[in-house]
């Protein structure tokens, strides 16, 4: 009977060690699956971090496009004025080139800081 009992213990021990091996393999399998999922979702080219970075880049580029379109509209309006509006051309010639019509005199106003009060006590 003692022999049967120790044999049952040996069988039970073998069974338990086999069960532990399977349990460890199961845990390793889940860990491997988790590692693959984490890599795919966070670190791969189609991962969350990459998608967030690309979305930010897209938003920045869209803002640049809006700014450039606004500038293009303003420049096109200036081109149209230069082609079709003689009053605008005259205004630019007077302001930028200081051109005058015959008989006109230009008066330039200096800022206040250029004037120094004269001392009358001298």
Give a quick set of tags describing it.
rod-shaped; mainly alpha; single chain
Walk me through the structure:
By secondary structure, the chain is mainly alpha-helical. It has two domains: 1-44; 45-99. It is 75% helix and 0% strand. It is built from three helices and no strands. It has helices at 2-43, 48-84, 86-97. It is rod-shaped and about 135 Å long. The mean pLDDT is 85.
Task: Describe the structure in brief.
The protein has 122 residues and is mainly alpha-helical.
Largest sheet: none
Note the overall shape. Answer: rod-shaped
Name the helicity range: over 70%
How many individual β-strands?
0
Report how far the terminal alpha carbons are from each other: 136 Å
Average pLDDT figure: 85
The number of helical segments is: 3
**What value does the Rg take, in angstroms?**
43 Å
Q: Which parts are unreliable, with pLDDT below 50 for 5 consecutive residues or more? A: none
- Counting helices, strands and paired strands, the structural category is mainly alpha
**Strand coverage percent:** under 5%
Element order: H for helix, E for strand: HHH
Instruction: Quickly count the domains.
Output: 2
Helix and strand arrangement:
Blueprint: H1 2-43, H2 48-84, H3 86-97
